[in-house]
Structure formats: C-alpha cells, structure tokens
Amino acid sequence: MPSQRQLFLNHLAQTSEAPLMLEMTSAEGIYMTDVNGKKYIDLISGIGVSNVGHRHPKVVQSIKDQVDKHLHVMVYGEFVQSPQVKLAEALTKTLPENLNSVYLVNSGSEAVEGAMKLSKRFTGRSQIIACHDAYHGSSHGALSLTGSESFKRNYRPLLPGISHIQFGDNDALSMITNETAAFVVETVQGEAGVQQADVEYWKAVRKRCTETGTLLVLDEIQCGFGRTGKFWAFEHYKIKPDVLVSAKGMGGGMPIGCFISSKEIMHVFTNNPVLGHISTFGGHPVSSAASLATLNVIQEEHLLNDVSEKEQLFHLELKHPKIKAIRSKGLMMAVEFDSYEVLKPIIDKAIELGVVTDWFLFNDRSMRIAPPLIITEEEIKKACKIILQAIDEG
Ligand code: PMP
Question: Is pTM, for the whole model, over 0.85?
C-alpha cells in the first residue's frame, strides 16, 4: 500500500519539486504536532493566518455554534445572514468612517479581484498602478498586479493597463494620473521581505490619489488583523485608504477575505449591470462566525498591547554574525542573510530542531518570522535559541 506521503505526491497537484512534506496531525496555540508526535513551534502562522494561534478556543466554539445553526443557505448578498452582518458591523467599527461597507469573499486573491473591479467601475477608468515586488495573489487579475516578472512571464497575456512603480519612491507617484483607477499597494510589503515606507511617502500617496481621483487600495491581506501591532497597518501611517483589502489572519484559520470601502463607492455594484460582483460562498457563515470571534479575541485579549515588546525581544535575541539585518513591523519580520544558499540549510535545520520558518517569494535570502501574536516571551527566547543553533549547525 502506498504511504500517505506517496499518495500526496501522486494525487495532489504539486506546486514545487521540493515540498516541505511535514505531516501535521494537530495544532494548538503556537504549536503543531506531526504524525510522529514531534512538536514544532510555528513561527510563520501558516502563512500569516493564525494570528490568534491555532484552534483558539473562542474561534473553535464560534465555528461549532454556527455549524449547529446553519451552513450555506444562499449566495452572497441576498439573505440577511447574522454571522455576516455581525462581522461587517464589527469590522467597520475598527475603521475610519469612510470604510463602512464590507464585501465578503473567500480568499485574498478574490478580495483583490473585487477591489480592482470596484475601482474600475467607480472611476470609469481602466489603468491601475501597483508596485514592483508586490504580491497580490495568484488569479489572473491579482497576478497582473504582482510585481515579479518571473511569476508572470509564462501566464501572459495578463490584464492590460497595469504599470508598476517603486514602492516608497515619492517621485514615482507622478505615474498616478487622472487616467488611473486605483493605486493598489501593500501597506507593508510582505513577499518583498517586509519592506516599509515612511509617513511622508504615505502622505504623498494619499495626496496624489486624492488630486487625481484615483482610489487608494491598501492590501492588508498579510499585514492587517493585528500582525504589525495595530489592528490595521495603515494606522501607523496616519492615512485612510479608499478601499481596504483583508484575508489570511481575518478568519482565525478559516478561509475568508473582504474588501471594504464606502457605501457610496460600493453602490456601483448594484446597477449597470445589477449584480456587478457576485460570489456563491463569499462570507460563508462558518468563516464569518470564526472571523468575528478572531476580531473579538484580538480586542478582548488585548493581543496588540505587547506586540512591540515581542518584536524588540526578537531583535535582542537574534544576534549572530551571519544575520545581516532584521526588518520588522510588529510581528511581521524578515531576518536577512547573505544568500539563499546560506539561509536554506538554516531553515531546514530549524525545522529538524522543531521551529518552522520560511523565506519570502521575492526575497529568498530573508527568513520569514511571523508567529501567532499570542507567543510568550519565554517561547520567543526558546525559538530564537533554536534559530541560533540552526545558524551554527545549518
Ligand atoms: N496579497 C497579499 C499581500 C498576500 O500576502 C497574499 C497571500 N500571500 C495575497 C494577496 C493572496 O491571498 P490568497 O493566497 O488568500 O489568495
């Protein structure tokens, strides 16, 4: 009989020649346990999802409660479904007044697709600007925005009318004009290896978008939902987007995403044509219930209060001549080494020693560290000690 590992290789579509092939049978808090009973510290939250930890009891309870009421009953937007309504209300309460209308979907890419369509339809324009090294998803529209030629090359033709500018470069903002429907940008670039821009840049972005009637679409799929120490990353930069995109950590381990805008902007989906954007499973009741519980956990358990101290602790503990730099915003961190060739054996060794990290899609010499926000100081020290050991032995 073929083993489960062999069946995985035989029957599940593969996305690389060298999958990690860890076989987890349970996960709780910051820990995952494999088929041999070996316990791992999850330092990447699989990836950027388990912000409140794996199987948070309140998230699990909300799922069970909803399963006992109903699963899918109707496509998005027709029936008044309590979990969706409660979630949308709670989300808007975390946001500035202009972000008061939520469109729930199933994933990050889908949320980006919706935001692109919304921007085109509202402005009547078709051009969109995004950034080099940005990652926005794998579907055709989101891939068109993604700022890596090697990821796109073999999937052309992609969407026309999309240009890329350098993230953080004020001069490049002149590319945004009266013809631009949207500037789609990650508030903190994730797959580029945690790249940040300063408050001045963001002020200039906001100004340019307002001047040109371009919608500012912030992708917070990776950096939102508490990851950077504020509920939304844009709060660090004192600007307001016109459209906000979320997913990943939003579901507490369940699949869900959304794009949020003003009622006025979102209204365009109701006419010409009616049902301008539709989704069967968008805002699935079980995912919506889990997402509301996740939001409540972050707020009620004050998970954001000590993110900054935890971030500093990682900086303090991770000192080694092979570490060239650490870039971070809250618990979204990139630990840079000389090259992928140096980093890869360190990641492999850390996994062997029971700590799961990773690299980034567009920055393969940096180690991804994005643990569940519930990680304790003791656990951080333990994980860092293992990483240092992996650096020495890797
Ligand atoms: N945008 C960003 C910033 C992301 O990090 C991701 C996922 N890595 C996506 C979009 C796409 O999300 P999904 O994989 O859920 O489609």
Answer: yes
